[in-house]
Every structure is written in structure tokens, then in C-alpha cells.
Specification:
single chain, about 190 residues, mainly alpha, Four Helix Bundle (Hemerythrin (Met), subunit A), two-stranded antiparallel ribbon, about 0% strand, globular
Length: about 190
């Protein structure tokens, strides 16, 4: 049986094609609708974890689906924004590469018996990515603001935070690896 937390995560996954479809048929109205759908998906990222932890609904399926949904949402929309010419490809490549590298590192950590929980830098990176993507999706001038300009500035900040958090994850992994296995294997 699916828990409420898992259903919230699945909602995030279902919203991804909707956001991409609205962006594909790009016009000012669809961009606003896509930004709203993306914003709702972003809120579910916080909501599913909150519900799971505070209502005893943490499951293995949820532990698998939540980070997968996050990566599909962020990476899928960023790639679409590159396709539309609304986000610099090189920045998106760095962000997507970071996601893949950290996924690989977490897989190695699991094999080594090391728990790599999300840290505050990774969470800040996600908040910045969501804060960047919403105005990039809107793209047009909205509420007197050049949404593309502000979205791009925040995207650069999120890229720097992605790099910093990646370095921090490697430091955390190295420290935990040395604690678990000692310094003898560190150089191997």
C-alpha cells in the first residue's frame, strides 16, 4: 500500500511531463501555468519528507522515489530550458553532472555502509534551483520584473552552491570512510 508521503512524491513525478508539455507549447499563459505546476512540484519535495518523518511513513520506496523525483524534476526542466534557449547549457551541464556524481557517490557510500544524508548545503542548492527555475520558466517580463534576468542570476548562484555542496559531500564521504575503515585503506 502506498503511504501519503509516497503519493505526494508520485504527484511530483506526474507533474514533470505537465511542466515540460506546457513549456513545449510555449506562450505567456503556458509559461505561467508551467511555473505554477513546477512550484507545486517543488513544494511536494518538502511536503513528502515532512509527512514521512512526522507521521511515521518513511519507507524504502519513498527513500528511492524521493531523490529520483527530485532529479527528474530539476534536470528535466533545466534540460528543457536549455532546449528553449532560456538557460546556459554549460551551467545546466555542471548542475546535472553534480546530480549524477552525487548519486554515484551515494551508491558507493551505501556499498561501504556509510550513510550520506542530505546536508544544509544540498538543501540550499535545491532551494536556489527551484528559485531560479520558476522565473526562468516564466521567462517573460512579469510583475515589472525581467524574469529571465533574475532567474539566470539565481541559476548561477545555484550552480556555485551545487559545486560547493558536491565538494562538501566528498569531504563528508572521505571523513566517514576513514572513520569506518581507518587510514590504511584511504590511499588505496
Amino acid at each position: 500500500m502506498l503511504t501519503l508521503a509516497t503519493k505526494i512524491t508520485l504527484l511530483r513525478i506526474v507533474l514533470i511531463p505537465l511542466v515540460l508539455l506546457l513549456l513545449y507549447f510555449e506562450n505567456p499563459t503556458n509559461c505561467i501555468l508551467a511555473a505554477i505546476a513546477f512550484g507545486v512540484a517543488g513544494i511536494t519535495d518538502w511536503m513528502d519528507g515532512y509527512v514521512a518523518r512526522h507521521h511515521g511513513m518513511v519507507t524504502n520506496m519513498g527513500k528511492f522515489l524521493d531523490p529520483l523525483a527530485d532529479k527528474l524534476l530539476i534536470c528535466g526542466v533545466l534540460i528543457m530550458l536549455v532546449e528553449l534557449g532560456w538557460a546556459p547549457a554549460w551551467v545546466v551541464i555542471i548542475i546535472v553532472s553534480r546530480e549524477l556524481v552525487i548519486t554515484g557517490l551515494r551508491t558507493i557510500a551505501i556499498d561501504e555502509g556509510i550513510v550520506m544524508a542530505a546536508d544544509r548545503y544540498g538543501k540550499l542548492k535545491t532551494v536556489l534551483q527551484i528559485a531560479a527555475i520558476i522565473p526562468l520558466i516564466i521567462h517573460y517580463r512579469f510583475l515589472g520584473l525581467d524574469m529571465h534576468f533574475w532567474g539566470t542570476i539565481i541559476l548561477y548562484l545555484s550552480m556555485f552552491m551545487a559545486i560547493f555542496s558536491c565538494i562538501n559531500y566528498f569531504r563528508q564521504f572521505r571523513r566517514k570512510f576513514l572513520e569506518l575503515h581507518g587510514t590504511a585503506q584511504a590511499g588505496s
